[in-house]
Design a protein that fits this description.
The chain is mainly alpha-helical. The protein has helices at 3-16, 26-39, 47-67, 77-85, 101-114, 124-132, 138-148, 158-168, 170-174; strands at residues 23-24, 75-76, 121-123, 155-157. The strands form two sheets. A two-stranded antiparallel sheet has the order 1-2. The chain has a two-stranded antiparallel sheet with strand order 3-4. α1 crosses α4 and α6 (124-132) crosses α7 (138-148). The longest helix has 21 residues, at 47-67. The protein is globular and about 50 Å long.
Length: 180
């Protein structure tokens, strides 16, 4: 795994490790979802909140199954890095990482929470706010948005996001497109 891939894996790990104990557990995944919802003023019992919490729980269950080698209910950083390195690459042959169904479900739920007006479409502002919550600078988010908004209408739907993820890899959409 290259240095950039390790850095992305570590960044995600650190964001998921909500209590800072150096391991991931089911509680971290729920707390991560609850923090995200709280930042949008959404409750965990709202339809969008339940969807995000359920998606995060499914992601935990799948990752625990695949990643937790010693079956102690905790994922250590090295285990997470190894799993991250095994993720499939994009269909377009770019070699960029694409997401597992569970990762895509979490992103789908986040997308709908971030779509504040509930119209199924995110504009640049909504997208930039969503990515800023994950520490992505606005310029990087704007560049990712441009990759997704292939028709240039200033709006993206989930289908646009997931299609761009297959073409360019999720890291380009979630963090920053690679320099051309």
């Amino acid at each position: 795994m290259g240095g950039e891939q390790v850095a992305v894996a570590d960044d995600i790990f650190d964001r998921l490790d909500t209590n800072g104990d150096g391991v991931l557990a089911a509680d971290d995944y729920r707390a991560s979802a609850e923090r995200f919802l709280q930042s949008y003023g959404a409750g965990p019992n709202s339809p969008k909140g339940r969807a995000l919490i359920e998606a995060n729980q499914a992601l935990w269950e799948r990752q625990a199954e695949l990643v937790d080698r010693d079956r102690d209910g905790k994922i250590r950083r090295e285990e997470y890095r190894e799993w991250f390195a095994s993720l499939p690459t994009s269909e377009a042959g770019s070699g960029a990482l694409s997401g597992s169904p569970e990762v895509m479900a979490v992103l789908h739920a986040q997308f709908h929470v971030a779509d504040r007006d509930g119209d199924g479409v995110m504009d640049l502002h909504e997208f930039t706010v969503w990515r800023a919550l994950k520490g992505v600078p606005s310029q990087s988010a704007a560049a990712a948005f441009a990759l997704i908004d292939t028709d240039g209408d200033g709006a993206i739907r989930w289908e646009d996001f997931s299609g761009a993820g297959s073409a360019h890899g999720l890291a380009a959409l979630l963090y920053e497109p690679a320099p051309q």
